[in-house]
C-alpha cells in the first residue's frame, strides 16, 4: 500500500458547490480522511446543478468535486446531530467551510468555540470577499469575483463585448489557495502544536492572479494585457482557428513573416519595435488574418513551429479529453460505474511519483457513510463521558 502525504489527517468538510469542494477533494486525493457534512435530504447544492440527471444527486458536477470523501447527511438544527459533529471535530485536524461569514458561528462551530476543545484545529474558511470589510456579507460567486476584480473588464480585443469567462476560474483558483493555506497551517502546527484560522477569498485570489498587471498599473500607470499584444492572437484558417504567441525572441515578427511567407514587416518603421507594433496593431493583425485564411491550421502550425514561434490549434474540450497527451498525463480517472455508465473524472494536475492519485472512495451517495462515521462519533462521545 502506498503511504500518501496526508495519511492520518482528518478533515471535517462543510463545503459545497465548487471552491470548497475542490480544496477538500485535493486533500482527499492525497490521503486525508475527508468527512463531508451535508444537509439531510438535500445535500451539497452541486448535487442539483444539472437539474434532473440519470444519476440523481450524484450527477457529473457533484461527482467531479467529491471523490475520495465520505458523506454524512444530518439535520444540524438537531442538538443530537450537532453533538455528533462536535465529537468528529474534537478528533479532527482541519475544518473547512465556505459559508458566508458568521454561519459557522451561528451553528455553534465557530473557531473560538472549537479551539477551546481542540487547540490544534485548523479552521479553513473560503469566502467571497474576506472576513471583514464593506462586502463581507455580500454573496460570493465566481462571476461576481470576475466582475469586481477587473478580470472581466480585461479583454484581448477591446472591440468585443464584455463577457463572462465560461470556466469557474475564480472558484478553482481560490480552492487551490485554500489547499495551500491548509498545508501551510499543518506544517506550522508541527512546530507550535496549535491550529489557526486560514482564510481565502475569491476576491483576493483574483487580485493575486493579476499580480503582474497590478504592479504595472500601480508602479507605472500602464495597462498590461498579455492577450492584447500585437503578435499574439487567434486567427481563422481554412479549417479551424489557430492561436499564435509571438514572444520570447529577439525579433519574433521577422520569424512570423518567414513562416507566413510574406515580406519582413519588422524592417518597416511602423513595425520596428514593440511600441510601434502596438500603435499599428490593427494593420499588422489584418495582414496576419488575411494570410492565415489562405491555408489550413496544420499547414501553419508546421510553418510556425519550424521557426520556433509558439502556436497551437484551438480545440474543443472533447478533443482535449481524447488527446494522447491527456492519457499519458493520467488526467482521466475511472471511478467505477453507476447504473447509467462509467464514472470518468478529471484527475489531479499534481503528479507525485510516490503518491499517485487513485479512487479510494467513489463520489459518495448522500449520507452513504452515516452509520460508519456517526458510529465512530457516538463511540467517542461515550468514551469522553
Count of helices? 16
Portion in strands: 5-15%
Q: Which topology of the largest domain does CATH recognise?
A: Rossmann fold
Strand order of the largest sheet: 3-2-1-4-5-6
Order of helices and strands: EHEHEHEHHEHHEHHEEHHHHEHHEEH
Considering DSSP H and I runs of 4 or more, what fraction of the residues is helical?
Answer: 25-40%
CATH architecture of the largest domain: 3-Layer(aba) Sandwich
| Apparent shape | elongated
Radius of gyration: 25 Å
Report how far the terminal alpha carbons are from each other: 36 Å
Please give a handful of descriptors for the protein shown:
single chain; 385 residues; alpha/beta; Rossmann fold; 2 domains; six-stranded parallel beta sheet; three-stranded antiparallel beta sheet; 11 strands; 15% strand; elongated
Task: Summarize this entry quickly.
The chain has two domains: about 10-210 and about 330-385, 3-Layer(aba) Sandwich (Rossmann fold); about 240-315, no CATH class.
Amino acid at each position: 500500500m502506498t503511504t500518501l502525504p496526508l495519511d492520518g489527517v482528518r478533515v471535517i468538510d462543510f463545503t459545497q458547490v465548487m471552491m470548497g469542494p475542490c480544496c477538500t477533494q485535493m486533500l482527499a486525493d492525497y490521503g486525508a480522511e475527508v468527512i463531508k457534512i451535508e444537509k439531510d435530504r438535500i445535500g451539497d447544492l452541486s448535487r442539483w446543478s444539472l437539474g434532473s440527471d440519470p444519476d440523481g444527486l450524484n450527477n457529473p458536477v457533484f461527482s467531479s468535486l467529491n471523490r475520495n470523501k465520505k458523506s454524512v447527511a444530518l439535520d444540524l438544527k438537531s442538538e443530537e446531530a450537532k453533538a455528533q459533529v462536535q465529537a468528529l471535530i474534537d478528533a479532527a485536524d482541519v475544518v473547512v467551510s465556505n459559508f458566508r461569514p458568521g454561519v459557522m458561528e451561528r451553528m455553534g462551530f465557530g473557531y473560538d468555540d472549537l479551539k477551546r476543545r481542540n487547540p490544534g484545529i485548523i479552521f479553513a474558511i473560503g469566502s467571497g470577499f474576506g472576513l471583514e470589510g464593506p462586502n463581507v456579507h455580500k454573496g460570493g460567486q465566481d462571476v461576481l469575483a470576475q466582475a469586481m476584480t477587473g478580470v472581466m473588464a480585461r479583454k484581448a480585443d477591446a472591440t468585443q463585448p464584455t463577457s463572462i469567462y465560461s470556466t469557474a476560474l475564480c472558484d478553482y483558483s481560490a480552492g487551490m489557495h485554500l489547499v495551500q493555506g491548509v498545508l501551510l497551517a499543518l506544517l506550522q502546527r508541527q512546530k507550535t502544536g496549535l491550529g489557526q484560522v486560514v482564510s481565502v477569498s475569491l476576491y483576493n485570489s483574483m487580485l493575486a492572479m493579476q499580480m503582474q498587471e497590478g504592479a504595472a498599473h500601480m508602479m507605472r500607470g500602464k495597462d498590461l494585457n498579455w492577450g492584447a499584444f500585437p503578435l499574439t492572437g487567434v486567427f481563422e484558417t481554412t479549417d479551424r482557428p489557430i492561436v499564435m504567441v509571438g514572444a520570447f525572441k529577439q525579433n519574433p515578427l521577422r520569424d512570423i513573416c518567414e513562416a507566413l511567407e510574406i515580406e519582413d514587416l519588422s524592417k518597416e518603421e511602423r513595425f520596428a519595435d514593440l511600441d510601434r507594433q502596438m500603435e499599428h496593431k490593427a494593420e499588422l493583425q489584418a495582414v496576419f488574418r488575411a494570410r492565415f485564411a489562405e491555408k489550413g491550421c496544420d499547414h501553419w502550425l508546421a510553418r510556425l513551429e519550424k521557426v520556433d514561434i509558439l502556436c497551437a490549434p484551438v480545440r474543443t474540450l472533447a478533443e482535449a479529453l481524447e488527446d494522447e497527451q491527456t492519457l499519458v498525463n493520467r488526467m482521466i480517472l475511472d471511478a467505477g460505474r453507476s447504473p447509467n455508465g462509467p464514472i470518468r473524472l478529471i484527475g489531479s494536475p499534481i503528479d507525485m511519483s510516490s503518491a499517485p492519485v487513485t479512487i479510494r472512495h467513489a463520489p459518495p451517495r448522500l449520507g452513504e457513510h452515516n452509520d460508519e462515521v456517526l458510529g465512530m462519533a457516538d463511540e467517542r462521545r461515550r468514551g469522553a463521558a
